[in-house]
Amino acid sequence: MDELILETRGLTKDFRGFTAVQGVDLKVRRGTIHALIGPNGAGKTTVFNLVTKFLEPTGGRILYNGRDITGEEPASVARLGLVRSFQISAVFAHLSVRDNVRVALQRPLGNSFHFWRSQRVLDRLNDRAAELLAAVGLAEFAETNAASLPYGRKRALEIATTLALDPEMILLDEPMSGLGREDIARITALIRTAARDRTVLMVEHNLPVVADLSQFITVLTRGTILAEGDYATVSTNSEVVEAYMGTGDE
What we know:
- The protein contains eleven helices and eleven strands.
- It is an alpha/beta fold.
- The chain has a six-stranded mixed sheet, sandwiched between helices. Strands 1, 2, 3, 5 and 6 form a five-stranded antiparallel sheet that branches.
- The longest helix has 14 residues, at about 150-165.
- The radius of gyration is 18 Å and the shape is globular.
- The two termini are about 35 Å apart.
């Protein structure tokens, strides 16, 4: 539990004179659900983009399993087992739910063209795809086009495709965004299940969800770490309370 799986040291990102992230030392312990929270404009998604290499840092280092990945490309980071989702559900809208999962399942095969070349090869993935769809409550939607799914079910499909990549660590960017109460309960349960044998780092605005799921929380404000600890610790921190009562824009 005490072993670090992800660490940033002095992580910094400047955008044409504006410093979005400054000197962030983030430490994520293996086997935990770690939440990254903060008011709008705190730099949470920028940290996500830096860690997964969708943005290049201006300064600092990023270590994953003790390996310096600061200079790696996004695809290389994903192959190492660090896989992210996005605020907007990212699925192949006009493929079936099953085919979305089967596309993701091909990555460990080492040949991204299997889907387009061979139905026979693709059919070998059916059993595992069925397992994943059952795990996220989508078994009955296997033949449905992803575009036809309600928004909450699309988020569940995105989690299924993320799990299909067999990641060691999952980064979830606002997984509850736009969801109703029933869907929030469903996605909360899915995250808890996914975290049984993985590490999860999530950006989330829904504080009851953060309190329910997270063992450790890092609070960002104005691109720097304001507080860290469990929910009881950070929720009673006067600086954190003040930051959330502010009206700063993202």
